Amino acid sequence: MEFSVTLPSRITANVSFNETVRFVGITGPSGAGKSSLLRALAGVEPKSDVVVDWGGRTSKIGIVFQQPMLFPHVNVRGNFALATRYASDNAMQITEALEGCCCEHLIDKDVSTLSGGEAQRVAIARALVNGPDVLLLDESLSAIDVNTRRKIYRFLKSLCDKQDLICMVISHDLDDLALFSDEMLYVAHGAIAAQGNINALIEHNVSKGEVESSAAMLCGVLADDLCDNATNGPFDTGIVGVELGDTVVYVCRDNIAPENALDHREKPSDKKWPSDKRWVRFAVKACDVSVDTNTQAIDKNTTSSILNALKCTITAITETPNESAMKKGKVLLTLAIDENSHPTSYNSDVTQFIYASISVMSLKRLNLAVGTQVIARFKLA
Question: Is the full-model pTM beyond 0.85?
Fold first, then answer.
């Protein structure tokens, strides 16, 4: 899959993806040209110059904007009826689209009574009923609560894997895109500033001093049985254990990427990571990470509500040119996770990183510097 887009004074992009890529996340600052890119790919920008190869697909394109643009003269059921009128042969059944987009209960509602999030769910389901080969979502889930949003992303990701749908999603929520994207694009100043997997974009953002929006994507082995011992109760907590080498961290099940979401650069190979393990990935926001210089206390943290602790070494301290962050006195620490917390003890060459956004006051009070060993603590991811 590849495309070239030129829209004067708004966006210029030349992008090529691996043939396995189906779910593409697009992020970047407001006004960077992200929406212009999708509109051009959808063919609704008459002044754009677009050359695109969707990998041999027939390229019926569906696009859903942040404003859902439902037909107001009919109810939700009527909107689906109009969508099926011009549907392709591979169109999804209405019941399946309703269930996947968590809006079965809205089918007979008037459009005027829908909340913003409800309307967005209906708009995405309506687009799927039309049977697109390529689905473009321009901040189309921004008004939906995080739990429902991730259910819908998980549904869309399954369609990409099972039905060969291509999905391109614009969002400012890096966590969501990190969990489900095969590849990501970072758009800035009308151009593609960075392309690659989540770690490539994180490195780009860190290099630009983005200390508050940074997140780490960690990879480990799923260990469901560890949860029962940790919770020690009859409740279905939705918490799972993830092994990072000799260390176990605890993660909400809904915040784990699908097991088939590990892209070709992350997926374990026979030479490095054992392929018989259930490998998963999850995001940890920099703003959720604190650091502790008392490295001897990692096994004695039984009185704290913070579940997760990783031994780390500070490898970089990044100040930010971002004015709003400077006013808050923030810096970003890049923390290399200790070798005993590598994704597997079978490969000592693999190092994972986590980020911590802390105050300048804490930096000075704790006398932190490159090379300082710390414990990175973070709540349930």
Answer: no
